[in-house]
Amino acid sequence: MADPVVLALAVPLCPLAAFALTWLLARGRPAAGAALSLPAIALSFVLSAVMLWGQVQAPGAIQADIPWMPAGRLSISMGILLNPLSALMMVIVTGVSLLVQIYSLGYMRGDPGFARFFSYLSLFSFSMLTLVLADNFILLYMAWELVGLCSYLLIGFWYEKPEAARAAKKAFVVTRVGDLGFLVGILMLSLLAGTFDFAGVARFIGAGSVPQGQVTLVVLLLFCGAVGKSGQFPLHVWLPDAMEGPTPVSALIHSATMVAAGVFMVARLYGIFQESADALRVVAGLGAFTAVFAAAIALAQDDIKRILAYSTISQLGYMMLALGVGGYGAGLFHLTTHAAFKTLLFLGAGSVIHAAGTNDIRQMGGLARRMPVTTVTFAVAVLAIAGIFPLSGFWSKDEILEAVRAGGHPVLYMVALGTVFLTAVYMSRLFFMAFTGASRGEGAHESPAIMTVPLLILAVLAAGLGMLGSPWVGRGIHGLLDPAAPRPVLNMGILVLSNGLAAAGILLALVLFGGRAGARAAHARKAGPLYSLLANKFYIDELYLLLIRALFFSLTTAVAWFDRHIVDGTVNLVGGASKMGGALLRRTLSGKIQGYALIITCGALAALAILLAAGLGLFGAWLTGPGILGPGGAGR
Amino acid sequence: MTLTLTHYLVLAALLFCLGVYGAITRKNAIGILMALELVFNAVNLTLVAAGRFRPQPDAVGQLFALFVIAAAAAESILGLAIILAIYRRRVVVNADEMDLMKN
């Protein structure tokens, strides 16, 4: 068995090598690009699985680092920290990447940027794996920004489309707002603790020498980064727009992996977060609000990918809620199952879009007969996300509900239950509108095997992954993440409650949206202002635009005036004064040698006059003293 | 009336001023060179006189004067050569017309 550190390092470095080689050797050669990218991520996946297996056998943190920038008292090191959490995350990232890359072989066939697409996917895998393995804030932040860059590149992959370019910019700028808080938090922490190392910082905070208020502030600043990256309210606005990117990207980055980075970060730094109960309450509250808020918006959307995007925001809210109420294992378990069923949903949506040629579910219908594999797998994913027993979403979601209930948060518990119902409604609405009813897409046909095989694999995972957290496999995933976790038990009360709510939601959607298109429109009309409020996403985008116009632009106008008149004025004044002074002095330089001679003579005379008048200085004293001009010398 | 150092110095000062005045006012470049010779000689006179009126008179002043003469001779040759070169090129010997450096 090789050194685990070397193996762990090889996991992110394989995709990096693929990325570099693609740009060096395979630009514009599609087959070569895929041929480099796929084996690299497959190798990474195998290595990650080995790492995870090692952690299952013998859980324990392995840390290795080298000093990178020693600077006096503060030494910045680069290193990796392999523990059960990062091993699990590595398997999720590489597994989803592998399936999405296989799927992309079919989905992106014939695209002029085929090789570029795979190189970006490789770069993303590298960045995300580095983020997962980092053992200190500097490396974490670097990888954090790198995945943001990859997200930007991939949202704007079809940059000729103006909406795609705009969405890419929006994603970059909005996440930047959160990242600023994250960076400030990191710098404050390092200033306090004198180190960037996770373990060192956690030890320092745990020692209790920092005032509680400061700890809360720092933790909330760190959480800002997670809010931006994981699309939590109020920075969720970029994620739905990010759906302008190719669908495999939405599946990989904007549902399963990168947006989960915020949740992962909170989990990775859980020791620090736990030091502030107030901050954890904020995490839980914001998570619960985001969950129900995004689920409500998803009810009234018509773009299949946007529905899934709001669903992702809602599910990430669930994870945050779980972490906030102390359900560490539950949150990460949900992250794992969510990665499976949400990737499946997106890839299924990609298959649908591929066949129907539109994103609008009102234009679809009756796809079930034409696309059997996609329909069946999609149905599995819908049932999984709705939390129907015994699919994966049920296990993880019920654990979160249990954690919220046990944590003694009745309000959050009600919100979470409401979200279960809403989730079932909007997902079923999507399913019924797209797959059942009158057939409309005439040319629709099943996707090729290269796309359906990943769907089938994911469907098996979406159905079965939940078993890891069921009482029938021992302590399962919890034993891995938290050795102290108790053996999970099936809470019959919550089981009946959540499944009842989900079933009610599905039935409601069947009644409302299972019928003809005319009936659907009538329901929308009946809902009236509430419907338009939801369809317009609570006017959050418009509100931001208004705020930016009113506050930001008036501020920038004032600043621009100041810059143009005061700052530029000062600069111009200095320039103008030099120019005028120069014009005056130019007169003295006639180019005639005797003019210069006169000036030199006058200068010498002036110097002599000053020396004599002062009667001071070495030369003056010598000249006027005895021996030369004085009485002693002159008398001879 | 005995000649004191003051007399020599006053004479040298007059000679110096005359030379400077000539160097500044003469148009002809050769004239300027000649005026500069007056300045050198004013310095030489000062040096020799100062040497003569030291408490123990010696030849140090004269030695300095010889050096100055040698340097002045070299300087004159250089100056004359430049003036000759300018004259060959531009047919001017007046210093106020030598303003190629301007602009």
Polypeptide structure, described:
- Chain A is mainly alpha-helical and 636 residues long.
- Chain A has 28 helices and 2 strands.
- In chain A, strand 1 (62-71) and strand 2 (74-82) form a beta hairpin.
- The model of chain A is unreliable at 630-636 (pLDDT under 50).
- Chain B has 3 helices and no strands.
- In chain B, 74% of the residues lie in helices and 0% in strands.
- Chain B starts with a helix and ends in a 13-residue tail after the last helix.
- Classes of the chains: A mainly alpha (636), B mainly alpha (103).
- The interface between A and B is medium-sized, with 15 and 19 residues.
Tell me briefly what this model is:
With 636 residues, chain A is mostly helical. Chain A contains 28 helices and two strands.
Q: How many domain units of chain B?
A: 1
Helix/strand structural class of chain A = mainly alpha
> Shape of chain B, please?
elongated
| SS strand fraction of chain B | under 5%
CATH architecture field of chain B: Orthogonal Bundle
Please list the strands of the largest sheet of chain A in the order they lie side by side: 1-2
| Alpha plus pi helix count of chain B | 3
**Which regions of chain B are unreliable across 5 or more consecutive residues at pLDDT < 50?**
none
- Anisotropy-based shape of chain A: globular
List SSEs of chain B in N-to-C order: HHH
CATH topology of chain B, which one?
Answer: Helix Hairpins
State the helicity of chain A in percent bands.
over 70%
